[in-house]
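Dear colleagues,

As part of the handover before I leave the project, I'm documenting each prediction I ran so the next person doesn't have to rerun anything. This entry is a single chain, and its sequence is reproduced below.
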Amino acid sequence: MVQELLSKDDLTKFNLQQEYDNSDIQSVIDILESELLGLKPVKNRIREIAALLLVDKLRKKLGLVSSSPGLNMSFTGSPGTGKTTVASRMADILYKLGYSRKGHLITVTRDDLVGQYIGHTAPKTREILKKAMGGILFIDEAYYLYKPDNERDYGAEAIEILLQVMENQRDDLVVILAGYKNKMQKFYDSNPGLSSRIANHVDFPDYSAEELVKIGKIMLEEQQYQLTKEAEDVFLEYVKKRMEKPLFANARSIRNALDRARMRQANRIFESVGRVLTKADLVTIVPEDILKSSLFNS
């Protein structure tokens, strides 16, 4: 059978590189590289998924039988590790390869899907699903949909509707469920129907302190600020301390910390009224702007 298949189609030729170039996937990969520092395992996984989809597309062109690859995904990891950003780029890839009709991303949480009284959940969930059709529905902290200890909770109804759509309209909607890894595993254990519909599991590692400092410098450069060398050393110390505290959210926490540093810098400049300022004064973050954080004074 295999020999017959090959002898029939072995003269059909195609240029894989040309197909890849025509898809313009590389532009999305390049954007992902520029947007996110590190995360090599995640980026490799996205490339693997893109490669599978491209090969599947080529197989269909050659008339080979090919079941549609499962596209629903699970993104696990701490807050601020780039899950939403990667989901957005994944939406672009699916659109460029023709696996998504619109290529848009709808991001929701439990509150967008689950109602507070009988008869409220179904229309809320269906309205969100209607908006997401032709693209990707990204459900953050998806495990909050399931609250088995609360008999009056309507999350189970939202899950049931979601399961029906994932089965009956799987060619027109991709669902990405996201959240902390251990909580997501418990969520899947409690909902085997959902677990069986997830084909791709992608784990997002936490950033190192050094990576977070680099991310912070990129954030500052985008707003035309810079750290002095001494301030960069202090900021690394700040990041290491902050990582040990509760509610740390990787790049999200770094952005918040730098916003506060900019406020302190502005206040420092304001208090120096009467002194002639230079452009360097306006763009430079110095150690004092970071050391005044409560983290160093607690």
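The longest strand covers residues 174-179. The domain at 2-204 is CATH 3.40.50.300 (Rossmann fold).

All the best with the project,
I.
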